[in-house]
Design a protein that fits this description.
single chain, 411 residues, alpha+beta
Amino acid sequence: MLIGFGVSERNRVMEKTDKPVDRETLYNEVWTDPVTVVAPRYGLSDVGLAKICRALAIPLPSRGYWAKVKAGRVMGRAPLPKLKAPGPVPTGLVKLPPEKAAVRQAARQSAAKIRKETPPLPLPEESQSSVTHPLVRAAAKRLKQRDGWPPDTLLRSAPKEVLHLSVTRDALDRALGITDALIKALIQRGFDVEVDGERGATTLKYIETGTRLEFTLTEYIRRTRHEITPEEERARKRYRERSRWDNSVSYPHVPMYDYTPTGTLTIQIGRWPSRNWKDTPKTQLEKRLGEVVGGIVALAQETYAKEVEAARREEAHRRAVERYEFLTKRREDEVERFKEVEASATDWERAMRLRAFADAVEAQAKLAGELSSEYVEWLAWTRAKADWLDPLVQVSDPILDAPEPKRPGYW
């Protein structure tokens, strides 16, 4: 039974909402309420939910449908087309608890507002000279060093020393410019940026809540199987010829893969939950600065809500464990006390039985006229043992209460 262990009604409601929603249920929802109302129930935007509906061949109300319904017109539904798969088709969506859905909706609205307020990063020829953030200056100085980088992947990265960037030399200036603009915009939104040298991570700290998010900016490097060049083949041939008589010759290094920079940058924030933004063929990150900043603020709010919920669950678990240990200890103590009482009652019954036996023996000896000094001594010994057994008589036995004798050794 769960009574007394702190399982709240809210937890039971959350358990009920963990059931995945099937295609027919989602169809009924989007035809009962607008997509803008249904989407927050799943922690999605209306655009995201509409994409899922199209992927599942779920028809959506046409433009103006809800205005006509509001005006009092009776509107028909577009039928739900059947799919080849038999039975209910899962959508992969799970309804969020009301409080979690409210947090995500508020974070989404905050992100949309920030996206409108944050201007895109100007092009290098359009930007005016401004003071670069100290962390960006330190990263530029470290990552522009000529030597000390892996020869194969071409990436430059030193997360234990400076900001966590992992890019090639050609993309470094652009990555530094994006990071500088992003850090300055986040500081205006109440963030602090730190480099954790011990963990090799760059963290964005949301000062209002203390929530920390990890930050990385990486460049995608295309990897292809290396094809041996004629020069490398000649080097191999020279090695085979010389190695027959010269053991000091080393085998020529031939890479397994070739790495080609693409210039495509990706910003990743957080771990679980996490968000990432990357260059697209149509829009680069410089033009999506507001989207990134708004998304980071929203992610910080969601992460904080998750941390609060995790702390609440941990506290509830701690209280449940504490309650369990208290009840278990109380039960054990009660059983132990009962055993002690039961043992005392048993000893008392044994003492009373010994005394009754001694009285019976004495009465019989008197009737037979055989109450000798040996009988008197035995009766005294028996009654003394009865007193020793009786928990109501505080006496000790010089023999039975003495420590057990130790067996003597050979030496």
